[in-house]
Design goal:
Low-confidence stretches: none
Strand order of the largest sheet: 2-3-1-9-10
Mean pLDDT: 92
Distance between the termini: 61 Å
CATH architecture of the largest domain: Orthogonal Bundle
Largest sheet: 5 strands, antiparallel
Helix content: 40-55%
Structural class: alpha+beta
Strand content: 5-15%
Number of strands: 20
CATH class of the largest domain: Mainly Alpha
Length: 685
């Protein structure tokens, strides 16, 4: 008989930031177990519910008894299962005992690699009650839980204490025990808006009964939608903070969401809005309200209570947030009493890394490197050095000590208060950008210079002491730093050479501080990040491989080269030239070329004379196109070599017996390869 299956664990408050993952993983584990055992169809995904105090699942069309089935067990290979006398070996005998079969009942199967014994065992279907509790116990052990806890006098362990278990198939209680609790058909409702046990008469009635009698919206997605709708309604033409992670968190904190509006004194708006927003969001889980892009003194509260008169809830939240805002205002006012420049000396007391010195030593390196980069960009070197020197000074302010997320942001405000140049203040904040995938770049050459200095110093420093990211481990966020460097160079774009930047960054460290061949390792690391970055941008893999094969250190030119190669690939001559180029590369790889100069007097065949003449004729144009970054025109010009190249390989023996002739032809191919691969390695196309 098919009916709906309901599973619920009634718990103490579950961790809000992982609630959705717990619910989804619980559903995935149970669905897999039930489907493999034949109680539900493989396509039956089920539904998950999650509130702060419960995890629940619902599967429609679940069988009370699994169907009869044949279980197939794979045994030893035939070669190892039978001895020389044709009798079963010890391994095969053990397999037969475990399967409860005799030799004559075994079958043989060939999987294309080897023939092996198979036992097919008919098994009668068993009741849901036999398996369900075990499935639930096994699923709970596989949930993504960082830490588990034990409660009471028993041995049960879970992320939070569990106080109730419900296993229902239709209207019937499925017998079983999980975490020391026996199954039942009752649950509990909202902690404050309901009381006593709530009977779930049928598994189909779970969500509706909880909502009607228990004031609980069990479905996570439904609560989330309710919160968003109420936020939109109460904003009433204003904008609430668009933070989806915060929406997820408050969804996991309430069982019956009701949104209320509250406010604070307008005088607090004199504090930078980033401080107020972070205070309300991080500490209180409030949604600040904005009007015309500016923070207002109003905010929205997601409550777990529905009351006729919300004045106590609103007033309570206003009383709670006021001291937090007062703290932020105090930190802001106190910090401004000491200029950023006066704080730089304190950075010498902060260890950056035990092998790389203090933060104070680091900012001195950043200042020198930023000045060098600014010089290459034609930017104000004095301002770049000043910005780099002050870039980390806000780390020793009270505000950043309380809210580390505000580093850079507060530095900008304090620099403005100290009447530093606007470009310096902007660079102090901008040098942390881009902070994540899709984030904005630092604006202006001074900010870019400081940002590059910051990221390159970290990359060269940690690579130089052997702290290279491995697998998923990247404790110093070097992948993010590398992507930041590449994005700034490519998207700003900036006419800077990556190899020269790495050399300049490495030169800033004390002699002997950096060890080994770290520059080559770092370059490889950067190009691998660039490869991934271009792939994510939608570029075709073979085009990326062709361009990056030449290890271009002018990253700003890579997009134009990719675009040019894309045009070249569409030309009818491209395939033949790519194949010829690959042939040339293979020949040159196997043979040492003794000279790059072609002696026209040694050219014998008409085909090689024609190729040399054509190559000589187009070389100035191709090199001019490349110098002017007209990469598409350069590749189109090379396409005109096809007929001469084809004729050369059809009618000329490159590896001639006569040494001078052979060397001359290799020199010709070397010149050809050099010209053909000015933009990309077209042999990879």
């Amino acid at each position: 008989m098919k009916d709906t299956l309901l599973i619920e664990l009634l718990t103490e408050e579950l961790p809000p930031k992982s609630l959705a993952k717990l619910g989804q993983s619980f559903r995935e584990q149970l669905q897999k177990s039930l489907a493999e055992a034949g109680f539900i169809a493989d396509s039956n995904a089920g539904q998950w519910f999650a509130t702060p105090r419960r995890l629940a699942l619902q599967f429609v069309d679940c069988l009370a008894t699994q169907p009869d089935r044949v279980i197939e067990k794979k045994g030893p290979a035939v070669a190892s299962g039978l001895g020389a006398d044709g009798k079963p070996t010890k391994a095969l005998e053990g397999f037969m005992r475990s399967a409860g079969l005799v030799f004559e009942q075994l079958e043989k199967l060939d999987d294309g690699k080897a023939e092996y014994f198979v036992a097919r065992i008919a098994k009668s279907g068993e009741a849901l009650d036999v398996h369900l509790a075990g499935f639930v116990e096994a699923a709970l052990k596989k949930l993504p839980v960082a830490k588990i806890m034990r409660w009471g006098a028993g041995e049960a362990q879970f992320v939070r204490p569990v106080h109730g278990l419900m296993l229902l198939h239709g209207a019937r209680i499925v017998t079983g025990q999980v975490l020391g609790l026996n199954s039942r058909n009752t649950t509990r409702g909202h902690r404050f808006m309901s009381s006593g046990d709530i009977v779930i008469a049928h598994a189909n009635d779970y969500a509706t009964t909880l909502a009607a009698q228990g004031k609980v919206v069990a479905a996570y997605d439904e609560r989330r939608a309710m919160i968003r709708a109420q936020l939109d309604t109460l904003a009433a033409g204003r904008q609430w903070l668009p933070d989806e992670a915060l929406v997820d968190e408050v969804t996991a904190l309430v069982e019956f969401p009701v949104v209320y509006e509250a406010g604070f004194e307008a005088e607090f708006l004199a504090v930078p809005q980033e401080c107020l927003i972070l205070t309300m969001k991080a500490n209180q889980k409030y949604f600040p309200l904005f009007a015309a892009g500016k923070l207002t003194n109003r905010f929205l509260v997601v409550s777990n209570m529905q009351v006729a008169d919300p004045r106590h809830i609103v007033g309570g939240n206003e009383r709670v947030v006021r001291p937090r805002l007062s703290d932020a205002r105090f930190f802001f006012n106190q910090d401004r009493k000491t200029p950023l420049a006066a704080r730089v000396a304190k950075l010498g007391n902060i260890v950056y890394h035990n092998k790389l010195g203090s933060v104070g030593e680091r900012v001195q390196r950043l200042a020198r490197l930023a000045v060098t980069i600014a010089g290459h960009l034609g930017a104000d070197k004095a301002q770049a050095g000043r910005a780099a020197l002050l870039a980390k000074a806000d780390l020793v302010t009270d505000m950043v000590g309380e809210f580390p997320e505000l580093q850079g942001i507060m530095g900008r405000y304090y620099a403005q208060h100290d009447q530093e140049p606007a470009a310096v203040a902007d660079a102090i904040e901008g040098h942390y950008h881009p902070r994540f995938n899709g984030d904005t770049l630092p604006q202006g050459n001074i900010a870019c210079a400081v940002a590059l200095a910051d990221k390159l110093d970290a990359l060269t420093g940690f690579f130089g002491i052997g702290q290279i990211p491995t697998g998923d481990k990247d404790p110093f966020a070097l992948r993010r730093a590398a992507l930041g460097v590449l994005r700034i160079l490519m998207e700003a774009p900036l006419p800077l050479d990556l190899a020269e930047l790495i050399d300049a960054a490495a030169a800033g460290f004390a002699p002997g501080m950096l060890q080994g061949e770290f520059k080559a390792q770092l370059a490889d690391f950067m190009f691998e990040r660039l490869r991934n970055l271009l792939r994510e941008a939608g570029h075709e893999q073979k085009l990326i491989d062709a361009v990056l094969a030449l290890k271009p250190t002018r990253i700003d030119k890579v997009p134009a080269k990719l675009a040019a190669v894309k045009v070249f690939v569409a030309l009818p001559e491209s395939a033949a030239l790519a194949a010829a180029n690959k042939r040339i590369v293979n020949i040159l790889r196997k043979t040492a070329v003794t000279t790059d100069d072609v002696d026209a007097a040694l050219l014998q065949e008409a085909a090689e004379k024609a190729l040399f003449a054509r190559l000589t004729a187009i070389t100035p144009a191709v090199r001019s196109f490349v110098a002017n970054e007209d990469y598409a025109d350069a590749l189109k010009a090379l396409a005109g070599l096809r007929s001469e190249v084809d004729a050369f390989f059809d009618g000329v023996m490159v590896m001639a017996e006569e040494p001078l002739t052979r060397a001359n032809r290799l020199a010709l191919l070397n010149q050809l390869a050099d010209l053909m691969n000015q933009v990309a390695d077209i042999s990879r196309l």
